[in-house]
């Protein structure tokens, strides 16, 4: 159900080490070469999350908009000139060409490119269908150009929400193009109440340049309880991931409207670059993910990074040979020494492999063209080619002919745990 009274949170007043006011646009060519290194991540430990105030006192200064209404440097993103620069950065004009033919029609519908679509001859019925499509083209609603829907399913995530919104606020992307939606499931902490407070602040009290196009919160409980100490047990993964798939499917089917892009973000990420949305969009792929790391103390003065999201992988000859021997009911899951799948993870690629095709993805930070979901590609809550949830999503997307890619040397960071 949609919780209809929601509205957002108090501002984070502390200055960030990644202040958007200092971020400068870069051109498309430079953007595609931009690969934040692990070394860049080391000094970027995020500041302590701001204190969450729940006071109902109307005189509480912490609930008032800041005097400096552009503390995140967002005002320049909403001028006419800067928006044009932003389109240039993407190196793509994503605006729909409805006067010729809506984007969801086959290429052959234009009547000029039969060969490339694989159609050599149309029946009379097919010609009539295409003619009817042409008639309705000018009346067809197309996705809002460059619009972005951020989706995050949450369960007992209260302790991470301050950092979650702090990172969102650093994104260098026009806020009036961003909608955001959450699904709260089986939560027993203050996650839901904090989201309600957040929506109230962002949508009613924040400066206009910080308001989202939409801010929706949904509640759907599945009554699935798994003790924390059993969360990563291999024998629990299939049922756990199936519940996560159900949550994701509930969220995107309820929240997706006219947006052109969908961005799945984990609720407990620790760091990602402010330019990441535009960086990923610049590759113009159906599905694309960065490399999600986790860092732990190696010794007193050093951090050690390792890949967190083992759900992003590429099949190999050995893995395909292993799959051929499986039963249809066998479930594959990554990250367990007791199950060697022989797949290639994002930390197994060479330095010159900056963009690689994948067969599985995780959900920590996954950018998807909305038409992928609209075509029926969701998150399997059943075994599809031995996978469920996000990895099943990647397999299903590829089965539909969509491209799935990863960036081995574009790093984001997840909290430990």
TrEMBL record:
Composition bias, Polar residues: 1-17, 52-70
Region (Disordered), start-end ranges: 1-77
Gene3D superfamilies: Spore Coat Polysaccharide Biosynthesis Protein SpsA, Chain A (3.90.550.10)
Residues annotated as signal peptide: none
CDD domains: Glyco_tranf_GTA_type (cd00761)
Basic and acidic residues bias (residue ranges): 21-38
Family per similarity comment: Belongs to the ANP1/MMN9/VAN1 family.
Protein name stated in the entry: Uncharacterized protein
């Amino acid at each position: 159900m949609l919780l209809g009274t929601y509205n957002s949170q108090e501002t984070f007043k502390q200055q960030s080490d990644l202040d958007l006011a200092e971020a400068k646009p870069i051109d498309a060519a430079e953007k595609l070469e931009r690969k934040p290194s692990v070394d860049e991540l080391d000094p970027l430990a995020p500041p302590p999350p701001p204190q969450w105030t729940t006071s109902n006192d109307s005189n509480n200064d912490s609930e008032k908009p800041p005097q400096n209404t552009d503390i995140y440097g967002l005002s320049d993103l909403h001028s006419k000139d800067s928006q044009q620069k932003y389109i240039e950065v993407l190196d793509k004009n994503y605006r729909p060409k409805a006067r010729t033919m809506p984007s969801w029609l086959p290429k052959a519908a234009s009547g000029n490119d039969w060969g490339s679509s694989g159609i050599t001859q149309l029946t009379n019925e097919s010609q009539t269908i295409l003619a009817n499509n042409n008639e309705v083209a000018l009346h067809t609603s197309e996705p809002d150009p460059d619009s972005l829907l951020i989706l995050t399913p949450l369960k007992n995530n209260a302790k991470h929400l301050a950092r979650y919104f702090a990172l969102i606020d650093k994104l260098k992307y026009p806020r009036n193009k961003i909608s955001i939606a959450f699904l709260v499931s089986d939560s027993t902490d203050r996650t839901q109440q904090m989201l309600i407070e957040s929506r109230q602040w962002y949508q009613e009290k924040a400066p206009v340049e910080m308001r989202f196009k939409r801010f929706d919160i949904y509640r759907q409980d599945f009554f699935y309880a798994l003790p924390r100490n059993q969360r990563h047990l291999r024998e629990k993964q299939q049922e756990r991931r199936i519940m996560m798939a159900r949550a994701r499917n509930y969220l995107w089917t309820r929240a997706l409207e006219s947006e052109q892009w969908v961005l799945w973000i984990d609720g407990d990420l620790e760091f990602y670059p402010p330019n990441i949305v535009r960086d990923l969009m610049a590759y113009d792929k159906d599905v694309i993910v960065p490399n999600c790391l986790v860092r732990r103390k190696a010794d007193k003065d050093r951090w050690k990074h390792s890949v967190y999201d083992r759900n992003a992988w590429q099949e190999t000859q050995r893995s395909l040979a292993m799959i051929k021997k499986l039963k249809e009911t066998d479930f594959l899951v990554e990250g367990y020494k007791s199950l060697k799948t022989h797949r290639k993870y994002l930390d197994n690629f060479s330095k010159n492999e900056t963009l690689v095709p994948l067969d599985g993805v995780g959900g920590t930070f996954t950018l998807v063209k909305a038409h992928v979901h609209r075509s029926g590609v969701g998150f399997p809550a059943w075994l599809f080619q031995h996978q469920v949830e996000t990895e099943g999503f990647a397999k299903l997307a590829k089965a539909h002919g969509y491209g799935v890619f990863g960036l081995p040397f574009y790093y984001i960071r997840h909290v430990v745990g």
